[in-house]
Amino acid sequence: MKRLFDLLVALSALIILLPVIIITAILVRIKLGSPILFTQERPGLNGKSFKMMKFRSMLDATDKCGNQLPDEQRMTSFGSFLRSASLDELPGLFNVIKGDMSLVGPRPLLVQYLPLYSDEQARRHNVRPGITGWAQVNGRNAISWEEKFLFDVWYVDNQSFWLDINILFLTIKKVLIKDGISADGEATMSIFKGSKK
Predict the structure, then answer these.
(1) Confidence of residue 182 (pLDDT cuts 50, 70, 90)
(2) What gap in Å lies between CA 87 and CA 89, rounded to an integer?
(3) Phi and psi, residue 39, nearest 5°
């Protein structure tokens, strides 16, 4: 039922939001250049890697040695707008249609975080990752990594169709009030270095 719901909603959203997706793509190309899409390998269901898609929201700026500059130096006001409005997440609908992601589930994080999880935290990969999730509507990037993983595992243990509906409505509210977009002093979220034992 969850997979069927994901497909119906993602296809409907793509059709309804197609003008917004096209306009956003054009603006990304004008303001940030190519490529329009940001793609990155992320761990999905059971930790299996997939290529996640988002609209690019940062510049490809580097220092004199060719090293990529920190997020806060590459983020532009336009990129901040894309993230605050969650427009950068729209290409993720294609990941949902492909079956790599669900509308609701733990957010797919970086592949290099996989060996850093405790056994309990790693259970977040027992379900498909989501465009939004229980952690996103309970603090998004303004909560600690440990809190985020607690919310993720709670979702794994308590997932239901009605919980997903509730999370989707709460996500709309969060986007409208622009709550929890970034952690204090960070452009997005600090790097996860493993939980304290």
Answers:
(1) low
(2) 5
(3) -120, 140
Q: Residue 84: pLDDT band by 50, 70, 90 thresholds?
A: confident
C-alpha to C-alpha distance for 135 and 171, rounded to whole angstroms: 10
The residue type of 192 is F
The answer to whether 89 and 131 are in contact (CB under 8 A) is yes
Give bridge partners of residue 41 from the DSSP assignment. Answer: 51
* Angstrom distances, CA of residue 124 to CA of 7, 28, 119, 129, 153: 22, 32, 10, 8, 5
102-104/130-132 β-pairing:
parallel
Residue 99: its pLDDT value, please?
A: 95
Q: Which region holds residue 180: left if phi is over 0, alpha if psi is between -120 and 50, else beta?
A: left
Element (H or E) spanning 132, and its range? strand 130-132
- What are the phi and psi torsion angles at 41 (to 5°)? -70, 130
How many Cβ atoms from other residues are within 10 Å of residue 184's Cβ?
Answer: 7
Whether residue 127 contacts residue 158, with contact meaning beta carbons closer than 8 Å, is answered with no
Q: To which residue do tokens 């303004």 refer?
A: 142
Secondary structure (DSSP) of 53-90: EEE--B---B-TTSPBPPHHHHB-HHHHHHHHTTGGGT
> pLDDT for 102-155, tens place per residue?
999 999 999 999 999 999 999 999 999 999 999 999 987 778 899 999 999 999
